[in-house]
Design a protein that fits this description.
Elements: E1 3-9, H1 13-24, E2 28-35, H2 42-56, E3 63-65, H3 79-82, H4 104-114, E4 119-123, H5 128-136, E5 144-150, H6 165-169, H7 171-178, E6 184-187, H8 189-192, H9 199-206, H10 211-231, H11 241-248, E7 253-258, E8 260-262, E9 273-275, E10 287-293, H12 295-307
Parallel strand pairs: 1-2, 1-4, 2-3, 4-5, 5-6, 6-10
Antiparallel strand pairs: 7-10, 8-9
The protein binds beta-D-ribofuranose and calcium ion.
Length: about 300
């Protein structure tokens, strides 16, 4: 039995690998993809998501565009990592399918209503679309099996000292989603910084040698270079696929049920995720937080997914 999933993303190099991981994994059934302004503006993320599916030969999965920016802040993008078009490196083919005419929240709502069982949402960008859905269609909450989100950190950030990019772009959206009562899993930098694209990982993925792997290798070349330039991390951390691993291969990611809060007001710490492992705040646990990754098992699963694609 596979888990039906919707991927909400802002491609972005690592988002593309998250899409491929989900599309190629037999434990998951990719029903729909929605996009958000994040790494780059929505025009690019919406095209890039379709490019990712086209390269991989994935057909019949609708892609709809969602929020152009966060609920109440100005969009800040990350061209310094992902390039001007969000997928620096390879030449991008024309997407084989047009953008779905429905907006992201409409596509998610209709997908949830049409499914015969609750659907999981994997979010790998600012979580604006999901917050809008929950605000506009709260009656659909029980049709969502769970939400797994790449973002946040139990430690330090990557865009300010204490905030991770996806959390920092739209912390208000994150607060709405965490408060919804739907099972929520945060996959933060504390684990994704172990999903490093080492030379050995690159070789291993490139050796798959299908169209997806070859395109992916050009993406990784660019991504590792910018991560080296910006963070001094030549083995770039491939964040977003780790969120997919939580559902595709649950044994590969260790989770802890704990208290998660997001900083909305801090002058220096907006978007910081506060994870109260020690129960100091005496608040009820409200989230699952990833604390460990079986790195070899993770890459083996990513590689296997890529090998099942075109
Ligand atoms: C997250 O921010 C984006 O740049 C990546 O795609 C990932 O989702 C990492 O902080
Ligand atoms: Ca992303």
């Amino acid at each position: 039995m596979s888990i039906p999933v919707i991927v909400d993303c802002d491609p972005g190099h690592d988002d593309v690998f998250a899409l491929w991981f989900a599309a190629g994994h037999p434990s998951l059934e990719l029903l729909a993809v929605t996009t958000v302004g994040g790494n780059v503006p929505i025009e690019h993320t919406s095209r890039n998501a379709r490019v990712a599916l086209t390269v991989a030969g994935v057909e019949g999965v609708p892609v709809a565009a969602g929020a152009t920016g966060p609920l109440s802040r100005t969009l800040a993008t990350a061209e310094w990592i992902h390039g001007e078009n969000g997928l620096g490196g390879p030449e991008l083919p024309e997407p084989s399918e047009p953008l779905d005419e429905r907006g992201a929240t409409e596509l998610i709502a209709e997908t949830l209503l049409a499914a015969s069982e609750p659907v999981a949402i994997i979010a790998t960008g600012p979580i604006t679309n999901v917050a809008i859905l929950l605000r506009e269609r709260p009656e659909l909450a029980d049709r969502i099996r769970e939400i797994v989100w790449m973002g946040g950190s139990t430690e330090r950030g990557n865009v300010t000292p204490y905030a991770e990019f996806n959390a920092w772009v739209d912390p208000e959206a994150l607060a709405i989603v965490v408060a919804s009562g739907i099972r929520f899993t945060m996959v933060g930098l504390n684990v994704t910084h172990h999903a490093l694209v080492t030379p050995a990982v690159r070789e291993r993925l490139a050796a798959v040698d299908n169209r997806t792997a070859r395109f992916g290798d050009e993406l990784l070349e660019f991504f590792c270079r910018t991560n080296d330039e910006v963070f001094g991390m030549p083995d770039g951390p491939l964040h977003d696929p780790v969120a997919v691993a939580v559902l595709a291969d649950p044994g590969s990611v260790e989770l802890v049920h704990t208290r998660l809060d997001v900083e909305l007001a801090g002058t220096e710490t907006a978007g910081a995720t506060s994870v109260d492992f020690d129960g100091m705040l005496k608040r009820e646990p409200n989230a699952w937080v990833a604390v460990g990754l079986d790195v070899d098992r993770f890459w083996a699963a990513v590689e296997a997914s890529v090998s099942r694609l075109a």
